[in-house]
Specification:
single chain, about 170 residues, mainly alpha, 8 helices, about 60% helix, elongated
């Protein structure tokens, strides 16, 4: 079957495989999804990070396949952008921190986000944390990371000065 601009998800569902979607992703332009990543709440974002979320782009059988794949392409691009933002705001562990972290069971990615929202926004429940806008969490994450990096650098400067005095 040839895929055209008028091919619906229903018509393509019979033969559509991951390889076909990957090929289409290369060819189509991004289309703003019904729920863009940067307008999601933290709870929606955590849910969107689940592998099964991709299937939601193909839930409407009357949607044109090209539109569904275009929305998926925009979603994947935005998830990559969030990943880049998070990578830029990552603080690398030094040797002492890595040693201290050995054997510690840290919360999952989603749990960490919710815990940060509870703390940073002075919330009282997970439900409240899930309703924080993703962009708000990302902004505070950037600010908190900058603050932590500054404090770490300042401690190193003070340590260096103390060593010089000895």
């Amino acid at each position: 079957m040839d895929i055209t601009e008028k091919t619906t998800v229903r018509e393509a569902a019979i033969f559509l495989k991951k390889e076909h979607i990957d090929e289409l992703l290369e060819k189509v332009n991004p289309v703003t999804p019904k729920k863009p990543v940067f307008s999601m709440t933290v709870g929606e974002f955590i849910e969107a990070c689940d592998d099964d979320y991709v299937k939601t782009f193909f839930n409407d059988p009357d949607e044109y396949l090209i539109i569904a794949v275009g929305q998926l392409k925009a979603y994947k691009r935005d998830i990559e952008n969030v990943s880049k933002i998070l990578e830029l705001n990552k603080i690398k562990q030094d040797a002492d921190e890595a040693a201290a972290a050995a054997g510690v069971v840290f919360p999952s990615f989603g749990e960490s986000i919710l815990a940060e929202c509870l703390e940073w926004f002075h919330l009282h429940s997970i439900e409240e944390a899930e309703n924080v806008k993703l962009t708000d969490w990302l902004l505070v994450k950037r600010a908190k990371t900058a603050e932590m990096k500054y404090e770490r650098n300042l401690m190193r400067v003070h340590d260096a000065k103390l060593k010089q005095k000895r």
